[in-house]
Amino acid sequence: MDRRRFLAAACMAGGSSAVQGGNQAALEVLSHYDYPPFLTGPGTGLSYELLDWLHSELQLSAELLLLPRRRLDMRLTESGWQGFVPWVNPIWFGDTQRRRFGWSEALMNDEDLVLHRPGLNLDYRGPESLRGLLVGGVTGHVYADIEPDVQAGRTRREDAISTELSLRKLMLGRVDVVFLSRSGLPWWAQQLPDLLRSVQVAATPRQRFQRFLLLSPHMPARSRELLLEGVAQMHQSSRWRQILARYGLSPL
């Protein structure tokens, strides 16, 4: 995966290690989400909108670095790492007790949808509902819930190199099912105008969850306070509501 960086050129108010000229070092923002709505093109997407909002509202300097999930996990274990990871959940990082990392209030509610080809009599109730079907995946993505059935040959999986290609295969009837986040559906519906006419969405989602900021335990106290207070205020921000609306999303 190519690394793309974004720098919100402002200094952090207090608490961070100094750099040349007396400014504060930018926080490193890590993300493995290289797909919509979080990344929609070079330098665009909801992750960049988040950093821009934090810069303008909190005068926070932050740099976005896209990494594969394994490299992101390794970075989190490095001593002295100071930054945060947006759009994630404690369960995905083995921190259900929230003791390993700091966590903000929820940024958004989300869920994984089960999209399927028309005419398929699918009453989705869980992984067992997909047995005998061909699931269209994305290379490198892990679908832990269906993996035992895939390994046992009860469910088939055929990957594409991108979400777009996987969706196009579903639209053509070349796969039976594709998983897609609800947060990404409005953007993809704009990019693929025939999408919602060509597929059906199962009434029951694959899973429901909330997305948070994961905060480094080594983050300076002032930076941590700014982020926690900022997220708490974000949902009342008219500007943030406008940002979400551009992606077809609603605030909490």
UniProtKB/TrEMBL annotation:
SUPFAM superfamilies xref list: Periplasmic binding protein-like II (SSF53850)
Source superkingdom: Bacteria
Protein name per Swiss-Prot or TrEMBL: Amino acid ABC transporter substrate-binding protein (PAAT family)
Organism of this sequence: Roseateles asaccharophilus
